[in-house]
Write a structure and sequence with these properties.
With about 300 residues, the protein is an alpha/beta fold. The protein has two domains: about 230 residues, Spore Coat Polysaccharide Biosynthesis Protein SpsA, Chain A; about 70 residues, no CATH class. About 40% of the residues lie in helices and about 15% in strands. It has 13 helices and eleven strands. The strands form two sheets. The protein has a seven-stranded mixed sheet. Strands 5-11-7-8 form a four-stranded mixed sheet. Strand 1, helix 1 and strand 2 form a beta-alpha-beta unit. The longest helix has 20 residues. Keywords: Glycosyltransferase, Transferase. Its EC number is 2.4.1.212. It comes from Chryseobacterium fistulae. This is Hyaluronan synthase.
């Protein structure tokens, strides 16, 4: 049976939360909406309680200590509390479109399919948010991949190892997973990452699970872009940007070693990790570190991330 648990981390989202919840609650496929309130400083908790009182599908949880633990920990708690056969995610300032589960219902008839992903569009909620987003990312109408793919092709595509450019990202809002597959591989979000936990999770997921593209030529969900989006505030290749990318690829590299991921993938992940490691060094130490690393791994000078450290 196609029963979905929708997990929504909630932190200072009172302005958007009701629209987000209402976009999901009406689907027949949605068994439950799990709100994980993460010690908001606005009235999000009161709004969560109101929504729970209005619909039995909606459930509210907080962390045991009722403190703030971040989106990764909130999603992990949501996974633990979920009871649906399938799991989806939704950010509290985003919303689903009416076609959200159109492809899943058919694709999941194939038992080997463990996850389905699609495309999302962008809604600019504030002018400042629009300017910040467009200054850092291409002004595209869809966040999606470039062609249909499944299985290991998805993992290789996310690492940039396919002959055609696959695309480097698809959004959690457009991802549906078999709960049994998440549990079988003990997949969780890295709680040490305050940003990029989604990218980290998706790449690991694509390695361990058989994913297939669903609707990739039109949006199945909408991402709201506004002044408080953390990712848009970071200046590309600034020290903060490089630090956060370093933590992401360090997480990936540690995982690749631990799980004995094939060497060709380990090498690709290592080059990204090392590029941002070098970017955080300075002065003469940085100069000699680049020289030594380029002798050991000449391909590092050809990565798309080389300017993160060579031009600073």
């Amino acid at each position: 049976m196609f029963e979905v648990s929708v997990i929504i981390p909630v932190y200072n989202a009172a302005e958007f939360l009701e629209k987000s919840v209402n976009s999901a609650v009406h689907f027949n496929e949605v068994k439950e909406i799990i709100l994980i309130e993460d010690k908001s400083t606005d009235n999000s908790l009161e709004l969560c309680k109101k929504l729970v009182s209005e619909n039995p599908k909606i459930k509210l949880f907080q962390h045991p200590d009722k403190e703030n633990h971040g989106a990764a920990a909130s999603r992990n708690l949501g996974i633990e509390k979920s009871t649906g056969t399938f799991i989806t995610f939704l950010d509290a300032d985003d919303y689903y479109l009416p076609n959200r589960f159109n492809s899943e219902k058919k694709l999941f008839e194939d038992p080997k399919i463990e996850g389905v992903f699609g495309a999302i569009s962008i809604e600019y909620i504030t002018e400042k948010g629009r300017k910040e987003f467009q200054s850092k990312f291409s002004d595209t109408t869809l966040t999606t991949v470039n062609y249909p793919a499944e299985g290991k092709e998805v993992f290789k595509g996310l690492l940039g190892l396919t002959p055609k450019v696959f695309g480097t990202f698809f959004h959690l809002n457009a991802l549906t997973l078999r709960r049994s597959s998440i549990e079988a591989h003990n997949l969780r979000f890295n709680e040490d990452l305050r940003v990029h936990q989604d990218s980290d999770f998706i790449i690991k997921l694509a390695y361990h699970c058989y994913l297939k593209s669903g609707i990739i030529d039109q949006a199945v969900a909408v991402r709201g872009v506004h002044d408080d989006n953390r990712i848009t505030k970071i200046i590309k290749y600034s020290h903060e940007y490089n630090q956060r990318q370093f933590l992401l690829w360090q997480s990936q590299y540690d995982w690749a070693l631990h799980h004995k991921v094939p060497k060709q993938y380990q090498k690709n992940i290592y080059l990204r990790y090392k590029s941002f490691d070098l970017s955080l060094k300075s002065g003469i130490k940085k100069f000699f570190s680049i020289i030594l690393e380029s002798i050991k791994n000449p391909k590092i000078l050809k990565t798309q991330y080389r300017f993160a450290y060579l031009n600073r």
